[in-house]
Design goal:
With 316 residues, the chain is mostly helical. The chain is built from 13 helices and three strands; from the N terminus they run H-E-E-H-H-H-H-H-H-H-E-H-H-H-H-H. The chain has a three-stranded mixed β-sheet with strand order 1-2-3.
Length: 316
């Protein structure tokens, strides 16, 4: 395990050297939440965490590794030179199908299609996190740690070493990203792969646990970001905007860019809120009701915030 972590650390420093040499940076534009060029693609360490674990364990989770590899290559190319949205979508759908073809193969065709499309949507919602310093690292740390807690103390549904290696990758990346002036950004290669890792842990947990009608409630573990992403998509759709077009209208982006709340304060708030929700999940008996109530409160808070924000902006 220690050797794997040291390899991960070496990979990150090696990538920094490569990125600096070839000037692989994220240049600020009208949608950015930063004002200076920042090294891009450091989230490749998340993919290497998956690769190293699989290679050291006789290619365990091979289908998932193949799916992650497809996403890593396509996303990194997109980081360097933006690809057509249709090509990215096809790659994401294919990668998701490959990564999860075994658990979803028992579903009916329409259910399988719906699941693949939903998972691809979650990847894209997760992808937006990298725009705010520390958001991806802090939120992922909470989510993956939650699964680590389950694997260690409740049900060994996944390799604890795999979870620990992913956590190590998050901490290494977070050390350079969770700063007022971030030294690096994850890039799509990191955020998309991390989204796939989170989905993988959700699916593995669902498979391992007996079906007590609580399957949907597992989404509670990522509900803060999921709610923000889905509600923002709904808001843009209702306003007649292209939901596939890049933007900065998420709640956290509004807080940072328009209300000038510090990046790290927003990132920490999202992570701590998700942590509180996850702790609550393990303290209640009716998981579905709890998830419904949490979702209701988040939707209500989202609606009230933007209603207040629009009124305040209209008074200026």
């Amino acid at each position: 395990m220690l050797i794997s972590i040291l390899v991960l650390l070496a990979v990150e420093f090696l990538y920094f050297a490569v990125a600096k040499h070839f000037h692989i940076v994220d240049k600020p534009n009208e949608r950015s939440s930063h004002s200076k060029p920042v090294l891009l693609g450091a989230g490749v360490i998340f993919y290497f965490a998956v690769l190293i674990y699989s290679a050291f364990h006789q290619w365990a989770y091979l289908s998932f590794l193949i799916g992650a590899s497809i996403l890593a290559v396509v996303s990194y190319v997109d980081d360097l030179r933006p690809l057509p949205s249709w090509l990215r979508l096809i790659a994401q759908l294919g990668a998701v199908f490959i990564a999860f073809h075994t658990p979803i193969s028992t579903l009916q065709i329409w259910q399988m299609i719906l699941m693949v499309v939903f998972f691809a949507g979650v990847l894209n919602v997760y992808n937006f996190m990298d725009g705010i310093n520390g958001m991806l690292a802090a939120f992922s740390l909470v989510v993956v740690s939650t699964f680590g807690y389950i694997a260690l103390f409740q049900h060994p549904f996944v390799s604890l070493e795999f979870v620990m290696l992913v956590l190590a990758a998050i901490l290494i990346f977070g050390f350079f990203n969770f700063r007022k002036n971030a030294r690096c950004f994850s890039g799509d290669v990191g955020s998309i792969v991390m989204g796939l890792i989170v989905l993988f842990l959700l699916v593995q947990y669902d498979i391992a646990m007996p079906d007590m009608g609580e399957n949907v409630s597992y989404l509670c573990f990522i509900i803060v970001f999921l709610a923000d992403g889905l509600l923002t998509i709904a808001k843009r759709f209702l306003n007649g905007k292209n939901v596939l077009e890049a933007h900065r209208e998420h709640l956290y982006e509004t807080l940072v860019n328009d209300l000038h709340v510090p990046h790290l304060r927003v990132s920490a708030s999202y992570a701590l809120l998700q942590l509180a929700i996850n702790v609550g999940y393990f303290c209640v008996n009716d998981k579905n009701l709890y998830t419904f109530l949490v979702a209701f409160v988040l939707v209500l808070a989202y609606g009230l915030f933007f209603n207040y924000y629009r009124r305040k902006a209209g008074d200026r």
